[in-house]
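Please predict the structure of the following assembly.
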Amino acid sequence: MYLYVEAARIINQVLNKKSSIKNLVFSSTYENKKQLYALTCECLKFRDVLDKILEGSGLLEKEKKFFQGDIILARVLLYEFLLGKGVQHAGKYRMCIMGHRKEINSSMRKILDKQGVRSLRDVVYNHCPDNAATGKTLPKYVRINLIKTDTNTVIENFKQNGWKLLKYQPSNFRETVESLKEREFMQDAHFPDLLVFPGGTDLHENKMCIAGEIIQQDKASCIPAHVLNPEEGAEVIDCCAAPGNKTSHVASLIRNKGKIFAFDKDARRMSTMKKLIGTAGVSCVECLCQDFLTVDPTDPKYSMVEYVLVDPSCSGSGIVNRLNQITDGKDSVSVQRLHQLSRFQISILKHALRFPGVKKVVYSTCSIHPEENEMVVNEVYSQVSDQFELVEIMPNHWLERGAPDHEHSQCFIRLSPDQSLTNGFFVSCFERRKIACSYDSMKKTNACKKKKKKSKAEKFIAKCSDNESESTVSFNQIHVIDSDKMRNEASSAADLLGITNIDSSVEKNKRKRKHEKYDSNIGRVDGRNDSGINAANGKKRKKKRESEKCFQGTENGKNRKEDLIEKNAQLTEQSNVTVQENSKESKSELCNKQADKKKRWEADRGIENEVSTSKQSNDVANKELQQPIGLAKKDLTQAKKRKEVYIVEDYPEKTKFDATICINSHSEKEKKKERKQTKDDTVLNINENVDDIEDITLNTTSVTKQDVQKKKKRKKKKKKSVVGNNYE
Ligand SMILES: C[S@@+](CC[C@H](N)C(=O)[O-])C[C@H]1O[C@@H](n2cnc3c(N)ncnc32)[C@H](O)[C@@H]1O
C-alpha cells in the first residue's frame, strides 16, 4: 500500500538527514498528510522496540525476497500490526505480516515480560528517561477559540460527554495536572482560555476540534499572544506566522476585531495557515507570503500597527517530542547553525521594532539555547534601549525566569517540561518607553505649534468666509464632520474668533465614538497588562488611535517624539478652549486647575515634583483632559434645547463631505430653511477624498451636491472614452 511505502521512504530520508519530516510529508503526493505524518512519527518513536521484535521474530530473514533488506518498510508494517490500525487493505503486505503473526506476537511478549510491562508504549516510555520521545508526561493543552465559543460552553460540552472537571487550589495546580487520569480535565491556572487534559489525549476527532472551537496547542505556545495582549480592534503584525497557531490565538483574543498582518515567506506553510485560520473562523487576518525583512515599516498601511509578534524560525530544541531528538540526539544543533539562527533572529526582531507606531513587541522561540533567546534579546536591546524597555513578564505569576548569567534575565520567562509541564520555550517583551518631557518645555512647544496653527486657522476662516454669503456669516458655531484635522482647525479658528459654540462630533464614526472619551493617557506609551483579555480598553484605545490618526505614523519622516509632543500640545490647547468657554468658572479655579494639570502631567511622566494628592482636583483635571474640544456634553444638550446648536445628522452614508459650517444667527424660520439647505444643497466641501487628509485645508471649495454629481458623471464619461480608446 502506498501509505506504507511512502512512510518508509520518508523515514529513510529523515534518517539520512536529507530533509525534515514535515517538509517531506508536505511535499509527498500522498493525500492524507495527517495520516502519513502520524505514521512516520510513530514509527520513528518506536524504532528501537520494533527492531527488537523484528530480530526476535526473524521476519526479515523469513521474508528476504519480499523485503529485500528494507528494514524500514518492515518496521512500518510491524507498527501498523502491533500499535496501529492493523495492516489494512494492503494485499501482499498484510499477507506477509499475517503469515508470521505468531512469531511476531511471541517476540513481543518476550520483550514485555522481560520488562514487566503490559504494552509496547510502556516499553518506550520506560526507556526514555525524560520521555522526550513520546511527550507522554506533558499534559495536553486545549485552547478555546473565543471567536467561535466561550470557556463555559466548552467545559459544559466536555462534561456532557463524560469528562470530569477537576477543581484545584492555585497552590496544588501542578500536582492536580500531574495526577490527571483518563477523561479528567481542568482549567489552566494562568490563562482562562486554556484547558488541561492528561498527556496522550487525542482530541483530533472531537467535534469541537473539527469545528475549530477548540485548538490543541501547547501552553507554552499560548503565552506570546497573552503577553502581547492586544485589545479588541488593535492592529497587529505577526512576522513569522505560519502555520498560524499564534496568529489565530491573537485573533481569538481580539475577538476577530481589528487587523492582523500575518507574514511568512514559506508559501506551503502559508497555505496550511490559511486552512487553520479558516477552520478557526478568523477573518481579521491578512496573509502575506513575503519575507518580513523586505516589509517597509514606513508603509502607511502599517501606521496603525501597535503590536508585533516575533516568533521566528529557531532550532526547536525546546520541543520535547521533537523527532530530530530521536534521530539525532538531544544536542544536535551545531554551533554554526545556532550562530546562523541567532543572526537571523536578531535581524527579524530589529526590523519589528522599526515600525513607527509599534508600542509592544513580543519575541519568543521554542528553543532552549541562550544563543537564540537571552543573547538575541540583549543584543537587540543594546541597540534600541533609548526607545524601548524590556518588560518583566508576569512578575508575580511565573517563577521560571531567563537563563541566569544573562543580563535582564529577570524580565524574561522560560518554560520547560520539568517546571512548567510544557515544551521548552522562551518569551520576552519590549515596550516603547514613555516620553519624559517637562511641562514647561511642552508648553514652549505648544506656543510654537499654536503660532503655526493660528495662521492655518486664519486661512481656514478666510476660505470659509469666501464660501458663505458674507452678510450672514457670524460663526456662532462650527460643525465638523469626520476629520480630526478639521476639528483641530476648527478649534483654532474658534479660538481666534472667540467663538463659543463648537460641536466637534464626528458623524461617520458617531456610533463607534458614542461612549468613548478622549484618553487622558494620550501621548503615553502605556497599557501594560500581564495577561488576560482587555476588552474594555479596546474601544478606548481604538478611539485614541482614530483621533491620533493625523499625527501618528502617517506623517512620514516625522519622529515619534515630536508626534507625541504635538499630540500633547493639541490636548492642552483643546482643554484650554474648554476652559475659555467655561466662563462661569472663576479665575482662581482655573489657576488651580492649570496647576493640577501641570502636576499631573509631570507625575504621569515620572518627572519628580510635588504630585497633587487631592483626588478632587485630579478628577477635575482628568475631566478636562478627557474632553477634547468644545462644549461639555451637558452644555451641548442645553445649547441644543435653546436651538443655538443643531447637528446635521442625516447625511447619506456615502456622502463625500467631510465638514460643514452651519450659520446660526438668524430667526428660527431662517434657521430651518438654512438647515434644509445645508442638508440638501450647499455644503462646504472640505475634501472629497477622505484619505487625502493633507489636502483638507487646501481644497476648500464650496460646491453643491449637483456639482458633485455632475463631476462624477463627467469622470465616468471620461473613463468610458479612455476604455474606448484602448479598444481602438
Ligand atoms: C517558528 S515558525 C512560526 C510558528 C508560528 N508563529 C505559529 O505559532 O504557528 C517560524 C516561521 O517563520 C517563517 N520565516 C522564516 N524566515 C522568515 C522571514 N524572513 N520572513 C517571514 N517568515 C519567515 C518560517 O517559514 C516559519 O513558518
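Residues 79 and 85 are 9 Å apart (CA to CA). The domain at 218-432 is CATH 3.40.50.150 (Rossmann fold).
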